[in-house]
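Issue: ligand-bound run for magnesium ion - logging full I/O for the record.

Environment: standard queue, default settings, no custom constraints.

Inputs:
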Amino acid sequence: MSLLSIIVPCFNEEEVIRIFYDEICKEAERFKSIGVNFEIIFIDDGSRDNTLQIARDLHKSDQRVRYLSLSRNFGKEAAIFAGLENSLGDYVAIMDVDLQDPPSLLMDMYLALTREGYDSAATRRTTRAGEPVIRSFFARQYYKLIKMISKTEFVDGARDYRLMTRQMADAILAMNEYNRFTKGINEWVGFKTKWLEYENVQRAAGNTKWSFWGLFLYSLEGITAFSTAPLALSAFVGIFFCAIAFFFVCFIIVRTLLFGDPVSGWPSLAVIILFMGGIQLFCTGILGQYLAKTYLETKRRPIYLIKTSEKIDQANSDLNNTDETV
Ligand code: UDP
Ligand code: MG
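Outputs:
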């Protein structure tokens, strides 16, 4: 029998985690009939509600369920990394707990890997129905922009929902950068990916964990992690304005020689100084973004820290039991 690990990042998901478990169990039955066992790993990303307790209960009643609790909220990217690092399966799937990633697609994904020879099967949403209009709009513009400025292929509407071989999971683990942008990393590592499409599904219960501002900051992460075009842009802007300044100097010299030098035009001078000051600050800001990311990378901080897991809980309870018997 082969083993399929399902990594499920959860942040304050007490309302939906059991619903997810019920659905995935149905899928597990189908897989069992073709000789594949499931391992379901809930990554509790520093939840402040009962998520961890529910995962513990599920583990007690079903040994296929494992859990890993991070010491605080590290973000979905870190949770995915933690899951990949602790999974044991020959195949690894990453899934949201809110059932926006339909479990029924798992079988198609698995067959794409085993029968069609793909290394991974990924999903993309063809619609964004049910999402706030403004969020969809900015998401589309963002994908257009990042496709233009990055060499890495970004797929519009791509989800993190994906099944991959152990080989590809290990390749992703080898990219142990601190500033993680999964959509880029998945493409960067290469391998043959089959894209499956589906229409957007609403959350089964609970609320989205992303604010507009949170998404905005995350999108900047994608740009700085997978493109240095903004740095080149600031250099081009500098060259462009130098060229303008050069022609302007020539123009003033010629005009002074021909018509003398009546002193006038300080408002235009003030505007030019302000404008140039703005451009300079803008370019320094871009530089600062990359510097900040480099600073964080060079610290080599761990991507996540574990507070507890089914193994740690088990070891602790074994220890308590021996203490009592002594
Ligand atoms: N999530 C997480 N850590 C976070 C934020 C989200 O582990 O800091 C998980 C969340 O529990 C869910 C998945 O990431 O399983 C997707 O989150 P959500 O549904 O809120 O995002 P959306 O589908 O709205 O983009
Ligand atoms: Mg969701």
